[in-house]
Amino acid sequence: MYRRLVIKLSGQAIAGSAQFGFNSDSLTHLANEVIAARNTGVQVAVVVGGGNVFRGNRAEDWGIDRVEADNIGAAISTGTPIGTVISCAREK
């Protein structure tokens, strides 16, 4: 059995039936799944994708074109796990 688990939650999973943003039912479901995994004794790290936060109407409202919005989302998604790995390494 694994002792540590990294779960990457995509923006699409968090948005649920919406195209972007946050859906409370989806967040509740995902949180319960993470809690269930943690209750098995596994250490859980969660990485949240950021792409959907900058896509759709919000990016246009902010004057950000689609390519730049994708780049911002990728940078957020990439930066989060790096921070998690560093944090885990510091705990050892």
Automatic annotation (TrEMBL):
Q: Which residues form a coiled coil?
A: none
**What are the protein's UniProt keywords?**
ATP-binding, Kinase, Nucleotide-binding, Pyrimidine biosynthesis, Transferase
Return the Gene3D superfamilies for the record: Acetylglutamate kinase-like
Question: Might you give the EC number(s) for this enzyme?
Answer: 2.7.4.22
Start and end of every Aspartate/glutamate/uridylate kinase domain?
A: 4-70
Q: In which pathway does it act?
A: Pyrimidine metabolism; CTP biosynthesis via de novo pathway; UDP from UMP (UMPK route): step 1/1
Q: Which domain of life is it from?
A: Bacteria
Per the UniProt record, one Pfam family is: AA_kinase
Instruction: Quote the SUPFAM superfamilies the UniProt record gives.
Output: Carbamate kinase-like
The family annotation for this protein states:
Belongs to the UMP kinase family.
Q: What name does this protein carry?
A: UMP kinase
Which taxonomic lineage is given here?
Answer: Bacteria, Bacillati, Actinomycetota, Actinomycetes, Propionibacteriales
